[in-house]
Design brief:
Elements: H1 3-29, H2 37-53, H3 62-81, H4 87-105, E1 111-113, H5 122-125, H6 131-155, H7 157-167, H8 169-174, H9 179-205, E2 207-209, H10 216-230, H11 236-259, E3 261-262, E4 265-266, H12 272-303
Antiparallel strand pairs: 1-2, 3-4
Helix pairs in contact: 1-6, 1-9, 1-10, 1-11, 2-3, 2-4, 2-9, 3-4, 3-9, 6-7, 6-11, 7-9, 10-11, 10-12, 11-12
Length: about 300
Amino acid sequence: MSLYAFAGAIELGLVYGLMALGVYLTFRVLDFPDLTVDGSLTLGAAVSAVCITKGLNPYLALVPAMAAGFMAGTVTGFLTTKLRILHLLSSILTMTALYSVNIRVMGGRPNIALLGMPTVFDPIRSLNVSPFLVSNILFILLVFVVVSILVWLIRTEYGQALLATGANPKMITSLGVNTHFTVITGVGISNALVALSGALIAQNQGTADVGMGVGTIVAGLASIVVGETIFNSRRITTIIISVVLGSVIYRLAIAAALSFKVAGRSFEPSDLKLLTAALVVCALVIPRLRQSIREKGGGKAGKG
């Protein structure tokens, strides 16, 4: 793997780590399978790109992008809690609707170019930092801020309500907690983080495209599973950090696989989805194999 590929994998791992944190909130904390993220990532990119082309500061453009993602998430939460539509179907409906919404946001076009426009990376570039490090420095800072806020949020009364809603909604309802509000805002916060990731990706790549969110949910799940498998822990702080590190490791594994050659032939970028699926399967199976080996070993020791 070249230095350029390595730096690029770290960069993607960090920025998509923000998306993985959003997926973690729904899938692990709320136990809510949310496919809205495939659309909200593009929504964040589209809103951010439009704001920048209209002359808004690129940092300020992240705010409406997150707000749009939050609104998309609340729609999914509302469909599930108030209209009693199955959560998986609700997210699919919102994701489908967002395809049209994203094109509308971009003025009826499938993409918006940001070449030559100001971005959040400009202040760091002005410091004469190596091109390999510009994006990584900013993403590390943003990830640190987001992780710190999430750790603080989970430790608040609202955060404990989120955990309880995902673990035992009937119990927490009996204690007087409005689980509908918790689910709606929780899914909203999740998609706000995904939209933030999309806005940063658009500014980093210089374009927002209507198809850039396809497969987002799979990448998010892969990051979570890889992080949990490697950094097996029950501490919430460690878990949140492991999600981001899982995203980085996942991107490094994909980059390594794409550069790996078998019989003189290497993987193509079109094989990315196949590699992702294989990686997730391995990450899911390995813990079960370990558990099975431990149980067999314990059984033999007991007989001895």
